Each structure stands twice: as structure tokens, then as C-alpha cells.
Amino acid sequence: MDGQLIHADSDATVVLSLEEMIKSNTASIQTLSEEKKRVSEMLEDTFNNDATYASQKDFIKQEQKKLKEIKSRISAQVSVKEMLDKKKHITSEIKERRNAVSDYLLEYERISEATQLELFPGEILQIVKVAKLVRTG
What we know:
The chain is mainly alpha-helical. The chain is 78% helix and 7% strand. The chain has a domain at 92-137. The longest helix is centred in the first third of the chain and has 47 residues, at 2-48.
């Protein structure tokens, strides 16, 4: 019984420590992201203050606008629309299958306790889990 209490206390300590590390690193990521944004804005201002850079940037914007109009005109063709729809469908199918493979791998790892899988003869792949925080509201 005492061993279980020590283990429970140890687990609780680890959980609290992990929570603190998650909070601390998440705050650091946010601070660094804000700093990166500020530095990026300063760099952009510096570039835009150079006459040659600003002139070329404007020229490129105009050319990109022309290219976008041409692409839009070509994309309006029935055969091109069909290809674009097919590409979108294939992209969606790939995403669904990747999610399914991810679920299968998690279950495979849980049941087999293996962290590697020989997908094709001689090709051993490591099972890697990725976790991230997502805002819920």
C-alpha cells in the first residue's frame, strides 16, 4: 500500500512538473513569436524604405496580378475545372488516409508495444507521436 502512495505522489509531482514546463514553454513560444513578428515588421520596413527594392516589389506585384488573371481565365475552362476538382479530391483523400494510418499506428503501437514497423521488406520505420495544444474557444 505504501508503495502505491509513493508512486501516486511521484506521478502527481511529475504531472505538476510537466504542467509547469508546458505552461512556461508555451508562454516563451508566444513571447518569441511576438518578438519575431516585430523583427519581421522592422525588416520589411527597412526593405520598403529602399527605393530600388520598393520599385521592384511594385513591378512584381503588377506582374503577379497579370499572372493571376491569366491563371483565372485558364481555370475557367471546363477541362481545367475538372482537373482542379480532381486534385482537390485527391488531396482530401490523402489527408483522410494519413489520418487513418496515424490512428492505426497508435493502435498498433498500443497493442504490440512496438515502436518500429517494417513497412516494406528492408524498410524499417519509426513510429513517432506528435502532440500539440489547440485552442478550443
